[in-house]
């Protein structure tokens, strides 16, 4: 849905070759200037899933007339009365390339899950210092689709669950809890003590993931794009596995690799049933 007004007739276009000027931002409230205890969600899927989530507390909801009507038409529960604004008022609060679709919500962050509780899931995803919010958001979306019980990551060297990450997750944050740990290797050891099989994805792994004996409960560990798993993380895993690809390009973006690995793991768990 496009809430942006059409260019008025006769309005001159930007001269060719002239650089586009950044939109002005309100003093004290550029994106990223919200307090740490506020999660910013924008875009239809991110905001509508948050509104549906009984665990998500919404502090403030900005909506264009079109977006507010769509919320009403689709019977999305409104936890707060939306403030009806023009699209430009949301534009000024976000990065210039943000696609908000007429919705922005200021929320409380969702509570994090303890490692002990996360270990009760049949399938976990562990992220070893993956810092790009677009990649992490796409991974969260795939995790929600593959019914991952939790995503375990370090408290440091991980992007905040807000803004770009939330938009890339397309509502997935409302369905996959996050578990933050101080030391990843120790967390993996604790998972193993609780009976979780810990499998690290590594391009140099001795076997294809599809040929690896997998069982529930299981944790798949992914490293940062380019760097891969850190040495201590590799040593702590029960086993390492690669994903064999038949085409000319033999590597995947980390978010695509996560989606494929989760599908393989979920199929293996279902077969072992």
TrEMBL record:
Keyword terms of this UniProt record: Methyltransferase, Transferase
GO cellular component annotations of the record: cytosol
Low complexity bias locations: 7-19
Sample GO molecular function, one term: RNA methyltransferase activity
Domain RNA 2-O ribose methyltransferase substrate binding, first and last residues per copy: 40-113
GO biological process: methylation; RNA processing
EC number: 2.1.1.185
UniProt-annotated stretches for the region Disordered: 1-31
InterPro entries: Alpha/beta_knot_MTases (IPR029028), Ribosomal_eL30-like_sf (IPR029064), rRNA_MeTrfase_TrmH (IPR004441), SpoU_MeTrfase (IPR001537), SpoU_subst-bd (IPR013123), tRNA_m1G_MTases_N (IPR029026)
Methyltransferase is among the record's keywords: yes
Record-linked Pfam families: SpoU_methylase (PF00588), SpoU_sub_bind (PF08032)
Protein name per its UniProtKB record: 23S rRNA (Guanosine-2'-O-)-methyltransferase RlmB
């Amino acid at each position: 849905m496009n809430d942006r007004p059409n260019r008025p007739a006769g309005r001159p276009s930007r001269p060719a070759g002239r650089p586009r000027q950044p939109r002005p931002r309100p003093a004290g409230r550029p994106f990223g200037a919200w307090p740490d205890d506020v999660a910013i969600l924008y875009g239809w899927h991110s905001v509508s899933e948050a509104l549906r989530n009984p665990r998500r507390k919404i502090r403030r909801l900005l909506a264009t007339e079109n977006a507010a009507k769509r919320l009403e038409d689709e019977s999305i529960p409104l936890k707060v009365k939306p403030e009806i604004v023009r699209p430009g008022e949301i534009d000024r609060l976000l990065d210039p390339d943000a696609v908000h679709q007429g919705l922005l919500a200021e929320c409380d962050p969702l509570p994090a899950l303890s490692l002990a509780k996360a270990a009760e899931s049949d399938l976990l995803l562990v992220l070893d210092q993956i810092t790009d919010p677009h990649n992490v958001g796409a991974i969260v979306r795939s995790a929600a689709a593959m019914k991952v019980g939790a995503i375990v990551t370090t408290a440091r060297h991980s992007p905040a669950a807000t803004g770009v990450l939330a938009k890339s997750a397309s509502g997935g944050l409302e369905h996959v809890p996050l578990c933050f740990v101080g030391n990843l290797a120790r967390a993996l050891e604790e998972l193993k003590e609780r009976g979780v099989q810990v499998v690290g994805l590594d391009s140099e792994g001795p076997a294809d993931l599809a040929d690896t004996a997998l069982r529930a409960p299981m944790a798949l560990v992914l490293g940062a794009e380019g760097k891969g798993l850190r040495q201590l993380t590799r040593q702590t895993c029960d086993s390492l596995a690669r994903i064999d690809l038949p085409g000319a390009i033999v590597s995947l973006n980390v978010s695509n690799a996560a989606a494929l690995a989760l599908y393989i793991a979920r199929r293996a768990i279902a077969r072992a049933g």
